[in-house]
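Researcher: I'd like a candidate sequence for this fold, 253 residues long. If you have to choose between options at a position, lean toward the conservative one.
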């Protein structure tokens, strides 16, 4: 049994395959994005599912509707494709596909969403998903009976009606993203355009050294290897603090 995904994607996918004793097939990427052709090549009769994080964590990139149409045409109709849309609410690109469209059109898709991101309820551990009845039935047979709490469910229901919070979070994220694009580029760092609430940057140097130096300035970013940092977009004052700290640790002497 195997699962197919992309090399630089959400760390939990290889972990869950390790936990069930399956093989994890990581396809190479096309620049900072999923290469769906490379994923399709790795799907075979023993593929349990394909994981697609859209947008992708940690790079913030998306696969488009056209990319997915081609991908579905290239794989067997019955392959289960898990569309992990944890950052769904942040996306502004008109080419972004809603995974539910593929489920409704008859594909074997599972769409996953969460209250951890734009709704800010990560500590309550609640999310939701959509799939064919037989997939949900299989999940129900193996899930723990009490896997979420009444408090989390009450908060999630309230969050679904709180459009003002979502609108505000989107606006704060958009403003922070545009500010950081300019500031980071101004510092000579290569920025990958993001559709999520974090930015993937290529620092062109040992990012662990930068990460440690930023920690000493009281700013936490994520060192990702290969010179890359993932930076969360914060409130305006937090973004400014990050840029100040980065400016300091990047300036020689
Ligand atoms: C792509 C992706 N999927 C899922 C999750 C986890 O979401 P939850 O907090 O609902 O487990 C994350 C969080 O880091 C993520 O980046």
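Model: Candidate sequence:
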């Amino acid at each position: 049994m195997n699962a197919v995904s992309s090399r630089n994607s959400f760390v939990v996918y290889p972990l869950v395959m390790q936990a069930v004793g399956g093989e994890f097939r990581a396809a190479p990427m096309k620049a900072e994005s999923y290469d769906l052709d490379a994923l399709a090549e790795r799907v075979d009769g023993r593929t349990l599912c394909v994981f697609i994080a859209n947008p992708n964590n940690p790079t913030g990139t998306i696969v488009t509707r056209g990319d997915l149409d081609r991908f579905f045409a290239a794989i067997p109709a019955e392959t289960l494709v898990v569309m992990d849309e944890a950052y769904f609410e942040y996306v502004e690109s008109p080419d972004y596909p809603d995974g539910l469209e593929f489920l409704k059109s008859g594909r074997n898709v599972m769409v996953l969403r969460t209250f951890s991101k734009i709704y800010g309820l990560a500590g309550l551990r609640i999310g939701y998903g959509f799939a064919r009845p037989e997939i949900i039935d299989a999940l129900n047979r193996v899930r723990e009976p009490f896997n979420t709490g009444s408090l989390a469910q009450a908060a999630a229901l309230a969050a679904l009606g709180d459009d003002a919070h979502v609108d505000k979070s989107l606006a704060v994220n958009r403003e922070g993203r545009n500010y950081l694009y300019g500031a980071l580029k101004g510092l000579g760092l290569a920025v990958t355009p993001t559709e999520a609430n974090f930015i993937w940057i290529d620092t062109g140097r040992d990012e662990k050294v930068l990460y440690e130096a930023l920690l000493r300035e009281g700013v936490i970013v994520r060192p990702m290897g290969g010179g890359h940092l993932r930076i969360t977009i914060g409130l305006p004052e937090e973004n400014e603090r990050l840029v100040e700290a980065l400016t300091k640790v990047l300036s020689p002497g």
